Amino acid sequence: MARSKTRDEILSVAARQFAAAGFKGTSLQTIADEVGCSKATVLYHFDSKDAILVALIAPAGQDLAALTARLSTLDADAARDAAIEGFAELVVRYRGEVALIFDQMLSIFDLPAFEPLWPDFETLHHAFAGWSSDPDELLLAEVMLAGISSVVLNHPDDELPTLRDAVARVARRALTSR
Amino acid sequence: MARSKTRDEILSVAARQFAAAGFKGTSLQTIADEVGCSKATVLYHFDSKDAILVALIAPAGQDLAALTARLSTLDADAARDAAIEGFAELVVRYRGEVALIFDQMLSIFDLPAFEPLWPDFETLHHAFAGWSSDPDELLLAEVMLAGISSVVLNHPDDELPTLRDAVARVARRALTSR
DNA sequence: TCAGAAGCTGGCCGATCGGTCAGATTGTTG
DNA sequence: CAACAATCTGACCGATCGGCCAGCTTCTGA
Predict the structure, then answer these.
(1) Where are the domains of chain B?
(2) How many Å does it take to go from CA B157 to C1' C26?
(3) A45 beta carbon to strand C: under 7 Å
(4) HEC string of B52-87?
(5) Which residues in chain B, range 7-46, keep a C-beta under 7 Å from any nucleic strand C atom?
(6) Which of A19, A122, B146, B170 could form a disulfide with A140 if both were Cys (CB 3.0 to 4.6 A apart)?
(7) pTM, whole model, 2 decimals?
(8) Which of B91, B139, B176, B177 best tests the A interface by mutation, with the highest count of A CBs <10 A?
């Protein structure tokens, strides 16, 4: 890890700019400008613009996979609670990456970087519904997943720790009301 | 209305392409290609690319304004129910435009087209919370608003009428569970 | 010391972007 | 018919995009 100081700087600057302006809305030039290097240097450390995105997504994907692996060992109620807590934590920690998923959401085609995450999202979705197969249950789970993501990424940074707990509390109430 | 056949065609093609690939991801050239005219013709009917977006947003904005005006005359429970039904209807009817808002969500800066809609969203937000000022109530309302939008625009067209009712039913349950 | 690897850069490439413009074509009206 | 406006187009503009490359520094280890 930390193969190069410049490389890390490029990653963190890119993460912020991608989250702020979207993937298509960010150029290699603006990344290079903020880092304080040349565009060629950015492409020296990464094969392409897409390679930066792939490198950014990787850690979030691993943590998500770890969460879903843990969920699959739990029964309905425990899985739902753990999914809520875990997802609230993840979405707050990887706010920028979540924003990227929303940004790329419209273009269903060219996102090989996100493909491996889909099964994990599916697991999370079902865990939110307490392993139920009731359509309304699943729909509400879907609404909550997307809603939480969107809300978190539209809140200012300084409220995030509070927001994580509030979001988990609210989700628990909405998803367990029979 | 219907000032020109070509103009209308440009609007409908642009609506579909914007919803499919995002605003930044759509070019005047691809719009012109699908319409079967030249890029210059597109810019003859509209002053700029942004002008197309403005023309597309207008009807959705008017319907949203009409809904919120109606809401403000109702008390808590009635307002919430009406907000849920009305929003489900709107978000299904203007699926493409909702997608555009999500697409532009990341770029907080350059969206004069969406600015006038903000107060109406605010009203809708509070109506979803039944005019309550409880933070958790408001947060859940926010989650549901964003979640419903995201879910609807990620469902295939043929399920939309069913989805509208299902989404309203689920939202009512989640928002009225005390 | 010095060769080679690693890091970095300016300059360039073809493609595409949104937008402009002069002029051709078409339709309407007196 | 002529005259005028509406419609449409190809050619072109400057800017920017992602990416490539030759070559310049800087670091490192035998």
Answers:
(1) 1-47, 53-176
(2) 39
(3) yes
(4) HHHHHHHHHHHHHHHHHHHHCCCCHHHHHHHHHHHH
(5) 26-30, 39-40, 43
(6) B170
(7) 0.87
(8) B139
Q: What is the pLDDT of residues A52-91, one digit of tens each?
A: 999 998 898 899 999 999 999 999 999 999 999 999 999 9
What pLDDT is stored for residue B67 in this prediction? 95
Residues 6+ apart with CB under 8 A from A76: A130, A131, A132
For residue B169, pLDDT over 70 is answered with yes
Other Cβ atoms within 10 Å of B63 Cβ, number: 17
B→A contacts (Cβ < 8 Å), by residue, are 19-22, 24-25, 99, 102-103, 105-108, 135-136, 139-140, 142-151, 154, 166-167, 169-171, 173-175, 177
Considering the four listed CATH numbers 2.160.10.10, 1.10.10.60, 3.40.50.1970, 3.40.50.2300, the one that applies to the domain covering B1-47 is 1.10.10.60
pLDDT in tens, B114-167: 778 889 989 999 999 999 999 999 999 999 999 998 888 888 777 888 999 999
